Amino acid sequence: MSLLVMKFGGTSVATPDRIRRAAKRVGREVANGHDVIVIVSAMAGKTNELVGWVNDTGPFFDAREYDAVVSSGENVTAGLMALTLQEMEIPARSWQGWQVPVQTNSSHGAARITGIPTETMAARFADGMKVAVVAGFQGVSPEGRITTLGRGGSDTTAVAFAAAFGAVRCDIYTDVDGVYTTDPRIVRRARKLDRIAFEEMLELASLGAKVLQTRSVELAMRYKVKLRVLSSFDEYDENAGTLVCGEEEIMESNVVAGVAYARDEAKMTLLGVEDRPGIAAAIFGPLAEAGVNVDMIVQNISEQGHTDMTFSCPVDQVGRAQKAIEDAQAAGGFAYSELLADTDTAKVSVVGIGMRSHAGVAAQMFRALRDEGINIKVITTSEIKISVLIDRKYMELAVQALHDTFDLDKPGAERSVRA
Ligand code: ASP
Ligand code: MG
């Protein structure tokens, strides 16, 4: 018996009517001979509403109660989905996270899954159950408290079940029809990718392409779960959506797979930092403790024993970063002459596994930005990614220019970089 995992996001279960449409898709897979584990999100907007109610109770809430509240949206859709399937005469039942149990650690609000016992659910399938509907996003801690996996976490629930049960595939139904070369709202000619490699998807997801939770991609890569992203609104088609898979399964290859952006990045610069062993640890240790998500880091060459240190972080963390640095200095951690915050920057990145074997991608990227008169403030690279920080007002222009220069609107036969 082959088992399929189907995950439906918030817009796909937003109303009883949409739940019926989703249930029909499940019914079709059952008719095709699959057992199905359905993972549901809360109805669109529900989790935001629940988070808002928690915030209204006061600023210092108990994270365990936060999880008790915000996990509840998925309980509703899981029950409704099971009822709808039963109405269609498909043997189905719902499972909340603690009933499976989806075991997690105790990091409330951002818990990690540590185990999913399969015996009980497998026995139910053996008894004739056709569909197990599981509330996504939630689990239970070793202390027996309800946990949640972080926003967007039902993607991770889905991949974890696919890995635990050895599913043939994990289909993620959402409101877009796949993964695009860039945001179609910025580049009209953005193209849907038929396939994308795990590594590329991981970079794109962590760079802000919101289609999949980053952790779900990490997990899929580790356990080689075939992941498909597709729309629950389009007519069904065998090859719909985008397959996220191992790079050996990708025949066509553009050097660059996609262009990603993060609109609200800040550039922070510490001027006149002493240049001595331990200084980076003295700066970035307190930033990490304060929960600042530092991304790019650049240290200048030093002059007369002093250097400048630049890093980027999300704009809404600037205040926290400033305080962490000032406190660390006051506690005698290190000396600097000035702390500058540039809050008008954005990050634009090109991503592609083809960069490993092609020289010249960076040069082509920089020429395209030059031709638009866009100044680059910070550059960082990894094996399959080049990111630049630029003025926010040029962000859209930069994304368009890069999409153009790498011909991302054209599907790829192997393509070389323009000299
Ligand atoms: N409902 C949760 C959220 O909105 C989890 C999810 O949908 O993936 O973040
Ligand atoms: Mg989502």
Which structural traits does this protein have?
18 strands; binds magnesium ion; binds aspartic acid; 419 residues; alpha/beta
Strand content: 25-35%
Q: Helical percent range? A: 25-40%
The unique ligands bound to this protein are: aspartic acid, magnesium ion
Unreliable runs, pLDDT <50, ≥5 residues?
none
Shape: globular
Can you list the strand order of the major beta sheet? 3-6-2-1-9-11-12-10
Radius of gyration: 23 Å
Mean pLDDT: 93
Helix/strand/pairing class, anyone? Answer: alpha/beta
Total E-strand runs: 18
Q: State the distance separating the first and last CA atoms.
A: 53 Å
SS field, number of helical segments: 12
Query: What's the main sheet like?
Result: 8 strands, mixed
Order of helices and strands: EHEHHHEEEHEEEHEEHHEEEHEEHEHEEH
